[in-house]
Amino acid sequence: MLAAMNGLRRPHWWTLAGAFAALTNSASAAPDIELGRYLSTECITCHRGGTARSAIPNIYGLAENAFIEVIKAYRDKRLNNAAMQNIAGRLKDEEIEALAAYFARTKRP
């Protein structure tokens, strides 16, 4: 009987371990591009016409890591621009990652 119980417990333990792994991996899930699209409307107001030579840069196609680094620098006031500090200051890490994913995959309209 003990062998039968051990046989039942083991699959149950593996099921719980798998569920735990799925939950812990969800924290590193891919950014929500649809959230990025939704949040991008404020960015597009200024950055739609941005170019490499203008004061407002083009952010379409920008690498995710570069976007995240710059926006977090504005949020943490390591980069000086009152407008960008104000906008970035309202964003959570998840939202910044979603915006980065969206703009990395999007071409200028």
Explained architecture:
With 109 residues, the chain is mainly α. It folds into two domains: 1-30; 33-104, Orthogonal Bundle (Cytochrome Bc1 Complex, Chain D, domain 2). It is 65% helix and 0% strand. The chain has helices spanning 2-26, 33-47, 64-75, 82-88, 93-104. Helix 3 (64-75) packs across helix 4.
Top-tier CATH class of the largest domain: Mainly Alpha
Largest sheet: none
Label the overall shape.
Answer: globular
Number of domains: 2
Number of helices: 5
Integer-rounded radius of gyration? 21 Å
The end-to-end span amounts to: 68 Å
Number of strands: 0
CATH fold-level label of the largest domain: Cytochrome Bc1 Complex, Chain D, domain 2
Uncertain residue ranges: 1-26
The averaged pLDDT comes out at: 81
The percentage of residues in β strands lies in under 5%
Can you tell me the CATH superfamily of the largest domain?
Cytochrome c-like domain
Written as H for each helix and E for each strand, in order along the chain, the element string is HHHHH
State the CATH architecture of the largest domain.
Answer: Orthogonal Bundle
Q: Specify the structural class.
A: mainly alpha
